[in-house]
Amino acid sequence: MTAQANAAAQVHVVGAGVAGLVAALAVARAGHAVTLHEATPAAGGRCRALPDGTDNGTHALMGANHAALRFLDAIGARAGWVEPEPDGLPMLDLADGNARRIAAAPLAWRDPARRPPGMTAGAFLALARMALGITDRPVGMALAKHPVLLRGFVEPLTVAALNTPVAEASSARLGQVLRRLGSAEASRLLVARTGLGPDLVDPALAALRAAGATIRFGSRLRALTSAEGRASALHLAEHTVALDAADAVILALPPWEAARLIPGLRVPERHAPILNLHFARQGEGPVRFLGVVGGLTQWVLVRPAGVSVTVSAADAETEADMAVLAPRAWAEIRQAAAAFGLPGAWPEAPPPCRAVKERRATPRHGVGIAPVAPRMVMRNLALAGDWTWSGLPATIDAAARSGEAAAKAIAARLGRTSPRAAKLRAASA
């Protein structure tokens, strides 16, 4: 069956991850008719809620993530994101049991108690050179002369932001992150108080529906047809949509899907996995966020409804036996809970655990220039997605910025005035 486009311009956003949600809302609020297509039964992409209500992984924002925070403001969800550790990030080193709070903002390092371990004058200069991004080499090599700082601060930051081991991670890409963490406000760490469903995905979908967007789940883009430099038809799961000359498309898809649909498109080809472990523990007290060095676990998010662990750059861990990994992770969680005085019972036996493996979570951010896809691939087709934003590694903020950029590019093509926008302005006059 073929669904013909309406006389007014239609914008089809394909992919309901963060990039697609941001792009769709921006275009809809500009007054254009928007249809958001998502292949799966739920929105959120890699920032999604699972069917049982837990998150697929442990996701955090920084105060420097302005685009992501703008989106939370736009959907009325900002209050759902809280700062669990305002006094500095609790970090436990399993090698010696040293538990300390570390500030991410350099200005706070004047306080020795909040300074990263190994932060000598020489180490600070090495970190500053990395922030400038003048050269590009593996992070491990750039800080080889400062192993204490590398192990206790830079390596956890690298695997969290770049999802790539320090032996291959790009120092220039890490520099993009470091340059944004100068102030105390920029380095604030925020997490969803309840979960990604109620604190991100649900309010985003509600905002889209309020803006008049149509949302279609189970709507996978099988192929697209192009002619004369423009997309002419979308071949979806059950039907084909013919695109009118005024219509536009935003593809907010993973790189391998974009490459499948657009032959010859240069995209990242190497990806890194992330392993998430979710323990079903009923607890008490506020939301907490802890870091662990020297073990399996890297970041521990504690909510009253459960405990989640993230293992980034998890090449080996995603292939390991979960029956071994879960008890090991739980033992490390108990150590961190004891070190930082978390309330409640922390029994020796691990509670039920659910593993979520994102095998192609992000591109590998190695040394060298990554493929940069053009924003406008065709006259009426824009790309979005964290992998399309070269100013940051593949993060939530990169996804949000790419969605904003794609919406802006499409809006410029459609013009500032649409029939629906004119009606909205007239109604509000």
Textual characterization of the structure:
Mean pLDDT is 93; it is low at 1-7 and 421-429. This protein folds into three domains: 2-55 and 195-269 and 368-428, FAD/NAD(P)-binding domain; 104-186, no CATH class; 271-363, no CATH class. With 429 residues, it is an alpha/beta fold. The strands form four sheets. A seven-stranded mixed β-sheet has the order 7-6-15-16-17-14-18, with helices on both faces. A six-stranded mixed β-sheet has the order 9-3-2-13-20-19, covered by helices on one side. A four-stranded mixed β-sheet has the order 1-12-11-10, with no helix packed on it. It has helices spanning 18-29, 66-74, 121-132, 139-142, 147-162, 171-178, 196-210, 255-261, 322-339, 396-414, 419-428, and strands spanning 2-4, 10-14, 33-38, 60-62, 81-82, 89-93, 98-102, 189-192, 214-217, 223-227, 230-235, 240-242, 248-252, 271-279, 288-293, 299-303, 306-312, 353-363, 376-378, 381-384.
Task: Tell me the fraction of residues in β-strands, as a range.
Answer: 15-25%
How many E strands?
Answer: 20
* Fourth-level CATH superfamily of the largest domain: FAD/NAD(P)-binding domain
- Taking all residues together, what is the mean pLDDT? 93
CATH class descriptor name of the largest domain? Alpha Beta
**Could you say which overall geometry the principal axes of the C-alpha atoms support?**
globular
CATH topology (fold) name of the largest domain:
FAD/NAD(P)-binding domain
- State the CATH architecture of the largest domain: 3-Layer(bba) Sandwich
Spatial separation of the terminal alpha carbons: 41 Å
- How many H/I helices? 11
